[in-house]
Specification:
mainly alpha, rod-shaped
Length: about 210
């Protein structure tokens, strides 16, 4: 037998004789892995409860965010509507006041003074609304739920509404005065007709 064949034979014998030992090592490794898998399964026993708690937390947070966004949207929509309404009312009040200031005086507009009283009440209500909007704007600027763009949008719309209500209040006052001046021009003067200093002197002597 040649030396090469002899070496090949010895290698084959060595390999076959040591194969069980290799299998044994692999078997032990599988047992260790199986042990680790068992331990992992035991540790995962608490995972469902933790995941459930996590999901509930996310759901609650999402619900709050949705409600907050809806509240912001509704608030902004209402403030925009309020601004548009106040601007339309202001245009009417301004036009009406201009009419009473320039129209021909034919008869009193508010002979029983009911319009005067009503306009005063409206002005008072507008003052209350104006202050309420200021308070709401201050609250929004400090609200912890609002931040970033949300806070900016809400505060800006409150500011715009406050300005619109203030303008409407001023024009309502102007309308009330225009009506009062209109009717005052139609009032008949009482007492003597005084057109000179001598007329005034004569009148004062009668007092």
């Amino acid at each position: 037998m040649s030396l090469c064949n002899f070496l090949r034979l010895n290698v084959c014998i060595y390999t076959l004789s040591n194969k069980p030992a290799i299998v044994g090592v692999a078997s032990a490794k599988r047992q260790r892995d199986r042990g680790r898998n068992v331990g992992t399964k035991e540790a995962c026993a608490t995972a469902p409860a933790e995941v459930r708690q996590f999901c509930e937390s996310v759901s609650e947070s999402t619900t709050k965010n949705i409600r907050l966004l809806k509240a912001i949207e509704q608030t902004v929509d209402w403030l925009v509507w309020l601004q548009n309404r106040a601007k339309a009312d202001a245009q009417f009040a301004e036009k009406a006041a201009g009419h009473f200031k320039t129209c021909e005086r034919l008869k009193p507009v508010d002979a029983d003074r009911t319009l005067y009283t009503l306009l005063e009440e409206v002005e008072g209500d507008l003052q209350k609304l104006h202050q309420l909007l200021i308070d709401k704007r201050n609250a929004a600027s400090r609200a912890p739920e609002l931040n970033g763009d949300h806070r900016t949008v809400v505060v800006d719309e409150y500011t715009a509404a406050i300005s619109a209500i203030a303008e409407l209040h001023n024009l309502m006052t102007d309308l009330r005065w225009a009506i009062g001046e209109h009717d005052a021009d139609l009032e008949k003067p009482t007492g003597p007709n005084i057109s000179s200093s001598s007329d005034l002197e004569t009148y004062l002597k009668t007092l």
